[in-house]
Every structure is written in structure tokens, then in C-alpha cells.
Design a protein that fits this description.
The structure is a homodimer. Chain A has about 375 residues and is mainly α. Chain A has helices at about 40-45, 45-55, 60-75, 80-90, 95-110, 115-140, 150-160, 170-180, 185-195, 200-210, 220-230, 235-245, 265-280, 285-295, 305-315, 325-345, 365-375, and strands spanning about 15-20, 20-25, 30-35, 35, 355. The first copy, chain A, has a three-stranded antiparallel β-sheet. The longest helix of chain A has 22 residues, at about 115-140. The interface between A and B is large, with 108 and 108 residues.
């Protein structure tokens, strides 16, 4: 009766839209934003340039870049009422729960909720401020208002740490690498929400909640938990063997689309190894050993480290607590989310799939009720 | 290069799961929950019985029903801190934005966020309280705490109006009719979010944001706006002709799956006509005239009134402001959302579809930058 073969589990291989935003070749390990290799962009451009590129389709002229940088910096402040509400939140709240809640609340104070570039820019700025403010509040520190003169990455780190750290240029590249990746689960959830012609806040809130899961953005936090649990180089093999024998998932490996080395992971791995030459990067030795074991054991299954495997090691090296890792993913990916939300509206069609029904049929309330009463009476 | 034919726009006709929760026959206009016709349930059961049925798969015994009723009534209170935050919200906030925000904030105070029946029950109770509290706050009235002795529908209306109104039995039936409908857009968004193994709050928050759109639950509010705009019986034909000639959508008609009369709309229409025999139901004459025009004009296109066409007229008759209509949909549908979220976990697979890429390829940052600089210099 129910033919399971018709079911597109996880929508694997199902094409849901036509998009000119990014191209992902999982077999060759390539990711391009608007035709530019993500590595090329990470090495040569800035987050602001990439945001312009993803939203508007081409690299900005100097004038266009100045315009966007200025718009982004103008939009950084949160409404005072929203900051006051954040102050009331329990300090042990997870940053992703806070981010999701505060973006939702923003809609009560910022009345324009259209699926527009204006709101895409505003949310990109404000999500960085929410993340930094929550970092300060959580740690019992006074918040540091944004500095308009600084770039997006510099300002974010300044709001967190009170100064622009040396690693800011690398953080900017991390934002670029996380900004977009085709129809991943969080982007898709934002598209589903906006396909009912709901609003920009609702769509981005859906994306944040979806990114949070450990099978998506939440993996970067879990990877660091795993590395902490392993603790030292000599424990790696034991951990690996135990996970394999229990057939459990090793965090940070495998990807629905990449069947070779994730180009972003490759770049992060290179940066980490370079950093490690100067000053020891904690957990890198454990990670590289674990990678070696996974690659040699699962070569045929094409399981490689993904972007979340290395990002946490880098953020940890920067002194960012692991609870904030997924938020760092979100404040970059909001560019991709909003680019897709707006692009899909050009050809919007409500997402409304189907299920195969596998339950009973033809039941009558009265008959079943009589039967239940009879059984109870027995 | 990009073959548009491969794209499953809106996932129309694509099966994404196997489910035993509801069966929808769009050709015959049938909707069954767990094998029971929705009309049979609306006429004979209660919201609590239907919630039990949808969540656990069978009608409850008396004992089971007592257990669920008691669990639901125990879970009605909101944490005091959450009520205090609601008090800070601007009074002109849309109830759906408030509902989405408060459900998100609940996760900061209620630490168990698992994809569990416990949380399904808790959210079903609390969402009704949020809706009623916001109704009171918005109107500058003191909130009325829940009364444990009352049923779900009675208590909700009591929290709104300070008494259990005569129409409560009909409101209970409305909750039943709205409780579930297969993989509609909001349910689907909740499944996408929870497919990353995110949490129950994130998933329900996605669903609320998705339901809000006028192509989904938001339609009931828009229908009443339309009826108000038409204003009187003699304007119906002019309005209809103007909309048809401008090829604009007439709110409350058409459905992705139903290609005949929506069984829920049929039932509501009947109730409205019965009520109208006692006391004139405002806008019903306008609606019936509009229905007549649409049915005769678009017979071949199989366009019929949907659930949102009549629900607003009934809620308006009950004295509920139209801004709250979609919230009334949400506080019922949360049962279906959570039933599907939990069912999908039994066979969870991350939703990760694909896009066909239609943009440029092989661009180089340096080359394009040089080109831009040259053009600007000219």
C-alpha cells in the first residue's frame, strides 16, 4: 500500500529552485559564489565585498562598496528596548536561542518586515551586535556599542573584546567562507517560511533555529566538545575505535553534497597548520590524528572533514567560547539566507509537499468509542 | 544548460515522508485524522480527544483522556519572567510576531527542549495562554490566569473574555478542524528545522513564522479585510469583476491539494448558515455572494473556498479581532506540528535539497576587479 520508494527522504537529489547565487560541485570539492571560487574570495576580498556580491550579483565598484559599508555600519545599533529585554534573559541561555529570540523580537520594534535588501543589510549588521552583546552580558561585562569607523569583522570583534585583535583578518575570511552554501537546511527553511509571503524576520528566525541543530551548524560546537573529551593525542585511536565499533557518528565528518575534501575545510586546515608553526594551536594535533584515522578507514565511503571540523579549533584559538561557535556561523550565513529568500521571491511558489499515508482508514468515532468502553469495562 | 523542467517548484507532488497522522484526499474533499473523518471528530469529540488521537495514534480511554486533560491544564502557566517581557512589548505588535517571539523566549526558561510529547503538550497549553495574555495586554486589560478546572477551549476563551462564552462548544470544534493537515507549509518548515536535530522550540517557532504568511494561515485575516473592504452586498459583483480583470488573487479561494470543496470549509459554512437563522452573521451575505461568483466563473479551474474563507467570519461573529485569527489557527495546529515533528524523528533524514545553478562561472577576483577599476576610470 505504502510504496516507500516514492519518498524523497531528506529531499536528497531533489531540485527545488534555479539560483545564480552559488555553485557547489560536491565531486570536485568546489564552491563558487556568483562564479568566483570561494578560496579566491577568502584570500583576496573582504566580507563586505562578498556580501555585496552575494546579494547583488557582481563585485562592487569602490563607490558601491563604500555605500554598502556605510549602510551596514549605520544599521548596527539595536533598539534600546531590545537591549533591555536581552538584559532580562537568564545568563545561561544558549547564544543560538538568544539570537533566534532577539531577531524575532526585533520585528516588534522595526516595523518594516519586507523581504527586502534593506532588511537583509539591517539583519546582517544587527545579528553581529546581538551576538557580541550576548557575549558581554553572559560574561557579566558591560556592552560595547558598535564603532562606525570599523569594518564589519573588526567592529564585531571590538564589540566582543574591546579591541580589534590581531586575528581579525582571519576572522573576516571565516565570515566569507561561511556566508553561503546553496540550499542547505537552514537556507531551505528560510525559503519555506518566506514562500507563504511571511516576513524577513520570520524567515531568518526559521533559519537560525534550523542552523542550531548538530546535523547542521551546531556541529562546530559538538566538534570541540569531542576534541575536549578526547583530551590528548594518545586517546585519539581509542576514541576512534570505540566510536566505530558502536557505529556512532564522529562529529565534523561527512557532508550530503561534498564527496571529497570540503574546499573550506581545506583552507582552514592550511591556516591552522600555519598558525601552529608560530604558537601551538590547541586540539590541532588531536584533530589531525583523528582525520588521518577517518580518511584511511572510510576512504571508500568518501567521508571527509567538513567545514565544522576545523572552524571550532580556529575559534577556540581566537579565545571564543564554544557556545558561540554556531552563532559565528549564523552571523555570516545570514547573507546567504537573505540572498536566497529574495531571489526565490522572483519566482515564488509555496512549498507544500506530500506524505504517503500509512495509517488506518474508515474508522467511526462512535464505533471505536463503544469498543474502548467495552474493553475498559471488561 | 539549466533545465527548468527538473525543478520541483513548491515541491508540488513530491512525497517527503510516510505518515500515519492524517490522510487528505484532495479530489474527493476528504480529510481524516488517524483514520477518522474530520467531520465525525468535529461533531462528536473534543479538542483534547483529538490532540490525544493525533499525538498517540488512537482515541483515548477515559483514563487516558483524564491524564492528557490534566497534563494540559497543569502546563498552562507561563514563567513569570516571560509574562514580564511580554508586558514590555509595543502594544501594536502583531499577535503572530508576539507568539513567535514568546515561544522562542520560553526556551530560555524551560530548559528541556527535546522533541518530546511532554514539550508538545506544554507548548499546546502555553501557546493558548500567550495568545489570550496578548489579547488582554493589547487591549489594556489585566491578564486572567488560567483556570485549571476548565477544558482547553473553555479556559482559552475565559482567559480572553473573563467568562466562558456560549459559543465555546463551536470554538472547540474550530480547534479540531484546524489541528492538523498533513505536510502543509508550516508543518513542513517545522520538520525541516527539527531534521537538523535542533529543538522543539526552534521547530515550532519556524512553523509559526511560516503559518503567518497570507498564502497560508495569514489568509484568514486577509479574508476579513477583503470582506470589510467590499462592505456591502451590492459591491460584491463590482469587486469580483475588478479582481478578475486585474488577474488578482481573491483571498480564501483555492488550495494546493483540495480540488473540490474543502470539508472543513463546508462544515463552517453550514454552522454559519445555522447561526445566521438566529442572529444575522455579519459579512456572511457578502461571502456567500462572492462564493457564488467564484464557483460559477472558475468551475473548470476547480477553485473552491478554503478553510480560511469562512473561519474569519465565524471568529468575527464571536467578537474576536481579526488580528488574532491566525493565532487561533496556530494554537490548534501546534498539535499537528508537534505530531509530525515527533513522527519524522523515527526516520529522520536531514532536509537538504539542491538548486540548478544559472549564474556565471570561472570568474577571477583580480581580473574582474581590474576590469571594474578600468571602467570607473573611463
Amino acid at each position: 500500500m505504502c510504496t516507500d520508494g516514492e519518498v524523497k527522504w531528506g529531499l536528497e537529489g531533489v531540485v527545488v529552485t534555479v539560483s545564480s547565487i552559488s555553485y557547489l560541485d560536491g565531486e570536485r570539492g568546489k564552491l563558487c559564489y556568483r562564479g568566483f571560487d570561494v578560496e579566491d574570495l577568502a584570500l583576496n576580498s573582504s566580507f563586505e565585498e562578498v556580501a555585496y556580491l552575494l546579494w547583488f550579483g557582481s563585485l562592487p565598484t569602490k563607490e558601491e562598496l563604500n555605500w554598502l559599508s556605510s549602510e551596514l555600519s549605520k544599521e548596527r545599533e539595536l533598539p534600546l528596548e531590545v537591549v533591555k529585554i536581552m538584559e532580562l534573559f537568564p545568563r545561561d541561555s544558549h547564544p543560538m536561542d538568544v539570537l533566534r529570540s532577539v531577531v524575532s523580537i526585533l520585528s516588534l520594534y522595526l516595523k518594516d518586515n519586507s523581504l527586502s535588501f534593506k532588511n537583509a543589510i539591517s539583519l546582517t549588521s544587527k545579528m553581529a551586535t546581538i551576538a557580541a552583546y550576548w557575549y558581554r552580558m553572559k560574561n557579566g561585562l558591560p556592552i560595547i556599542p558598535p564603532d562606525k569607523r570599523l569594518s564589519h569583522a573588526d567592529n564585531f570583534l571590538y564589540m566582543m573584546f574591546g579591541e580589534v585583535p590581531k586575528f581579525s583578518h582571519l576572522f573576516d575570511k571565516m565570515l566569507i567562507l561561511h556566508a553561503e552554501q546553496e540550499i542547505n537546511a537552514s537556507t531551505f527553511s528560510a525559503m519555506v517560511t518566506s514562500s507563504t509571503l511571511s516576513d524577513m524576520y520570520s524567515a531568518v528566525v526559521s533559519a537560525i533555529g534550523t542552523l542550531k541543530g548538530p546535523l547542521h551548524g551546531g556541529a562546530n560546537e559538538r566538534v570541540l566538545e569531542m576534541l575536549e573529551e578526547i583530551g590528548s593525542l594518545e586517546n585519539v585511536e581509542g576514541y576512534f575505535n570505540a566510536m566505530v565499533s558502536r557505529r556512532e557518528r564522529i562529529m565534523g565528518f561527512g557532508h550530503r553534497v561534498y564527496k571529497t575534501y570540503d574546499p573550506r575545510a581545506k583552507l582552514m586546515r592550511k591556516w591552522l597548520c600555519e598558525l601552529n608553526e608560530g604558537q601551538r594551536v590547541k586540539y590541532l594535533d588531536i584533530a589531525l590524528k583523528l582525520e588521518e584515522l577517518v580518511l584511511s578507514r572510510f576512504k571508500d565511503k568518501k567521508i571527509y572533514p567538513n567545514v565544522d571540523f576545523f572552524s571550532g579549533i580556529l575559534y577556540n584559538h581566537f579565545g571564543i567560547p564554544k557556545e558561540f561557535f554556531t552563532v559565528l556561523f549564523a552571523i555570516a550565513r545570514v547573507v546567504g539566507w537573505t540572498a536566497h529568500i529574495i531571489e526565490y521571491q522572483q519566482n515564488n511558489r509555496l512549498f507544500r509537499p506530500l506524505a504517503i499515508y500509512s495509517g488506518p482508514t474508515g474508522l467511526s468515532y462512535r464505533e471505536v468509542k463503544e469498543q474502548i468502553d467495552k474493553e475498559v469495562a471488561l
